[in-house]
Description:
Rossmann fold
Amino acid sequence: METTKNANNSDYDHNKAAFSTMPDFSRYLSISKDIGVISLTRALQYEFIRNYPFQGTVLDIGGGELTGYRQLLNCSSYDSINIDHSTEPTWIVGVGEAFPCSSGSYDTVISFNTLEHIFDAQFVLREMQRVLKSGGNLWLTTPFLFPIHGHPDDFFRPTPSWYNQALTEAGFKNIVVFPLAWGPLTTGQVCSGSPGPFRSFRRQIALITDLLYAKLQTSRKQTTAFDYLNRFATAFLVHAEKSVSVD
């Protein structure tokens, strides 16, 4: 997986190390409490959201005050856009409509599990870029190996290659795509839905087995954390920056 030509390679390697972490026991204790209540995909996304300090003014595309992750967000100023009244967003915006925000008005734009439900995703990326301040940050998460889930529609599963090209064309730089995964057994359960009896118990066993397998891979030094997780990605976490304007 490669970043764009605009990115500094040392920064890219640092970011990969910072966000690509192998399974460990402390993470297991945190994630295992969520499994059975939410999916592994969402648990891994929430782990990031819970621990990352989002900078300045934040606009959440597909969010709202009643989303499951709102109370996890570490930010001082929060606005949101959604098509769904029930999430209590700041603005109700229809599909294909421009955001009701001034250009260059937010430090950070976030969007979690939303882009895959939008047919013209490129239009939304351009709107995200427009409302960001110069040098502002974009954070996206979308599922990858995950069943179709219409809300009301489900159009595609963005890959790292798609993100690199689409975000570059939308005016972003320093694009890094992080795989979110725990291991082969848990990703297999996400794909299958883990049907059958004792599902919660089997999910816990899969978490522990993948933890042990990751420890074995680490001890043998056969792969980096980034490459290991990329093999089993159940979702992707994406960071990009809006280019700094030069007057």
